[in-house]
Write a structure and sequence with these properties.
By secondary structure, the chain is an alpha+beta fold. Helix content is about 45%, strand content about 25%.
Length: about 140
C-alpha cells in the first residue's frame, strides 16, 4: 500500500501559516503600542514647550498677570487666573472658543516679596494635568 505524503505537507503548511500569523499579530500589537507612546511623547513635549514659553513671558512681565495676558493673548478670569487654549496641532486658539484641545492655566498664588503662580497644562475635558510648573518672579505682589 502506498502512503500519501500530501497530507503531511498540508499539515506542515497549516502549522507554518499559523506561526507566521501569530508573529504578525504580535508585531502589529507592538507597532500600535509604539505609535501610542510616540503620540503621548509628542503631546508631552509640546506641553512642556508651551509651558516654558509662558514661564519666560511671566518672568519678563515681572509676574504681572495683566501684562502676561496682553503678551500672550490669554483670557483673564475674575480670580486673576489666565487661560490659553490650543488646538490639536498646538496652535493657539481663542480660549472662549469651544474648539480647544489643550488648556494652559496660570493661577496666582500668595507670596511675600515676590510673585508666584502655578502653571498647568491639561487636555480639554480632562482633570489630569499633562504638565505642571511652579512660577516665580521678582515683581511686586
Amino acid at each position: 500500500m502506498r502512503t500519501s505524503r500530501s497530507g503531511l505537507l498540508v499539515i506542515e503548511l497549516v502549522i507554518a501559516v499559523g506561526i507566521f500569523s501569530l508573529c504578525a499579530a504580535i508585531c502589529i500589537g507592538l507597532f500600535v503600542q509604539a505609535d501610542r507612546v510616540s503620540r503621548e511623547s509628542d503631546m508631552l513635549s509640546r506641553a512642556v514647550s508651551a509651558a516654558q514659553n509662558v514661564a519666560e513671558q511671566y518672568k519678563a512681565a515681572d509676574g504681572d498677570l495683566g501684562r502676561l495676558a496682553e503678551a500672550c493673548g490669554a483670557l483673564q478670569a475674575a480670580d486673576g487666573s489666565l487661560t490659553l487654549a490650543f488646538d490639536a496641532g498646538w496652535l493657539q486658539v481663542d480660549p472662549a472658543d469651544g474648539a480647544a484641545s489643550y488648556r494652559l492655566t496660570v493661577t496666582p498664588e500668595t507670596a511675600q516679596g515676590y510673585q508666584r503662580a502655578s502653571l498647568t497644562v491639561r487636555q480639554a475635558g480632562s482633570d489630569e494635568a499633562l504638565y505642571t510648573l511652579p512660577l516665580a518672579a521678582e515683581g511686586r505682589p
